[in-house]
Amino acid sequence: METFIYVLIVFTLAIVLLEQYSTIKILKAEKRRNQETVRNAEQQIHYLNNLQNNYDALLIYNRTIESKYVHALEQPNNFTNNELRFLISSCHPDRHGGKPMSIQVTQKLLAMRA
Asked: What are the two backbone dihedrals, phi and then psi, of residue 99, each rounded to the nearest 5 degrees?
């Protein structure tokens, strides 16, 4: 009878160990998936940080260029009427597919003509 109890205990322990082993395998697989998710998130963060750095650099560059143009536009108008007509026709939006920059420059040149 004692042997039967020992066999039953050993068998029960074996079942418990198999269940724990199965749980450990599941947890290890979940850990691997989580680690992959973290790696992907870190890569996306790195990519977004690079985008932010590029954006910041472009903003600085844009402000530099903008300040040069603003400074140039603050200068008195030294163009003759013929030169202004030429500049307006050269950068007119009809010649540049209606690009915003050509519209903006043409408007400024027209304001200088007035």
From this structure: -60, 140
